[in-house]
Each structure stands twice: as structure tokens, then as C-alpha cells.
């Protein structure tokens, strides 16, 4: 099962959510791959992998596609272990930005899907972190994935961003990946005491959009886990927010196994 975490709005929790769901999956003993398609490399860094050392990255994989990287490496060569058991990363690199135009010009949007299919037997779960743009990389991710998850940060602009996002994704789905399903919207940095989040969630539900029952609260523990480069299931498994990620992960797994 391949899931993409996408919202073109910046700072809503894409990297935090994709890394923590991947970590939770790995902690459950599933071989899990986190693909980081954002040139910022936040989820790569968060999972304890350094992009600026010698290993290969997802940028090299894309450069190979356009002939800028000539070594005939198989897809596994671009994947790296993390310090955590069963958790692997296809790491980002700042040079993703350099190769984007070339990939676009040559219509290589399907290449990621092919690569991940080749890795299918190696991994039980794949999570894809995306940049805050509807660009080549987020499109490639939405074409490669089976499901997509939308983080939502409960501010007023987010609801407008969701309408735009769904319009874009529905169009892409119709053209390139009819199997893609909106799995649900994750309410992040939820504050149950404030009025606005409750109203915004009601507005999402009024549009018949699927909202995950488990919400993720705001906590300084999230920032601590970023700075320690240790996703929450490893840093503090009994913490409230770690339990929320564990429960959210269960919700995904149960939905995945439910009959359609
Ligand atoms: N539940 C949370 N509690 C506290 N802080 C959070 C939470 N979720 C995210 N953050 C913080 O919000 C900021 C943005 O989160 P994150 O980087 O995951 O978002 P993003 O959507 O990946 O951003 P970008 O669009 O830049 O890639 C980070 O500083 C992160 O630590
Ligand atoms: Mg991010």
C-alpha cells in the first residue's frame, strides 16, 4: 500500500505526519519506506538520514531518468536504512529542484510509479512526503500512490486551499491514476477548546469529505522530536501525541482492510 501525504499549503504537517506514520508502521514490524520528494529534505533529516553525505538520493534516481546520472544503479541502490528498525528512506536532496524542469520537459511523471513498483516486493508500506506545491514531484507522487492523505491545520485559509487541492487532484486522478483514493483529512495541531477548528471540521464534513476520527494535537514534544531527529513512536511512545499517531495509523490500517 502506497500513501502520499499532500497539501499544497505549506507548514500544515506533511513531513511530521508522513514520518510519524512511517515510523509507527516500522515499529509494528512492517518494512516501511518513506519517500521524501521535498527538496527541503525535512522528513529525511527527521528520520536520522543525512542528505549531504556520500550516499545516493532520490534526486540521483530522477537524474538517472534524464541521463544526468549515468551509473546503471537499480532502485534499491537509492534507498537507505535509518537508525530505526524496519524504517528505510528514499532521501531527498536540494538538487531535486535542478532536475525538475528537465523531467517535466520529457514527460517523466510516471517514472516514480515504475520505480516504486519495482520496489514493491521489498516493502510492506510506502509513505510519500511531498513539497508544498502542485509541482512535478507531487504530481508524480499522486500518480504513484494508491491513497492520499491531506493534513489540515485548522486555519481559515486552509478550507479554501482544500477546495483548490481537491480540484487539482481530481483532475490528475481522472487523467492519470483513476485508482487513487482520498483516504482522509488529518486534523493537525487540533485544539479542542477553540471554536474555529470545530467550525472548520464541520465545514469539511458538510462537503462530505472524509475526516479521520483521530486528530493530532499540538505539542512541544513534536518540535523536540524534530530537533532530536527521532520520530515520536521512538522518542516517547507513551506520550499523548505518539498515541494519537498510533491510533491514526490503526485507523488507516483498518480502513485499508475493510471491504469496499
Ligand atoms: N502536532 C504538532 N504539534 C506541534 N508542532 C507541530 C505539529 N505538527 C507540525 N508541527 C510544526 O509545524 C511546522 C510545520 O510542520 P511540517 O514541517 O511537518 O509541515 P509541512 O507541511 O511538511 O511543511 P512544508 O510545507 O514546509 O513542507 C514544524 O515546525 C513542526 O514542528
Ligand atoms: Mg514538509
Descriptive report:
- The protein is an alpha/beta fold and 260 residues long.
- 45% of the residues lie in helices and 13% in strands.
- The protein has eleven helices and seven strands.
- The chain has helices spanning 14-27, 42-46, 58-65, 96-105, 111-118, 136-144, 156-176, 195-206, 220-227, 232-235, 240-257, and strands at 2-5, 32-36, 80-81, 87-90, 125-129, 147-152, 181-187.
- Strands 3-4-2-5-1-6-7 form a seven-stranded mixed β-sheet, with helices on both faces.
- β3 (80-81) and β4 form a beta hairpin.
- α1 packs across α11.
- It is globular.
- The structure holds adenosine-5'-triphosphate and magnesium ion.
- Residues 14-15, 38, 42 line the site of magnesium ion (MG).
Strand order of the largest sheet: 3-4-2-5-1-6-7
The residue fraction in helices comes out at: 40-55%
Mean pLDDT: 95
What's the shape?
A: globular
Poorly predicted segments: none
Number of continuous helical runs: 11
What bound compounds does this protein have? adenosine-5'-triphosphate, magnesium ion
Q: Give the beta-strand count.
A: 7
Report the span from N to C terminus: 15 Å
Largest sheet: 7 strands, mixed
Order of helices and strands: EHEHHEEHHEHEHEHHHH
Indicate the proportion of strand residues: 5-15%
Compute the gyration radius: what is it?
17 Å
Instruction: Return the structural class.
Output: alpha/beta
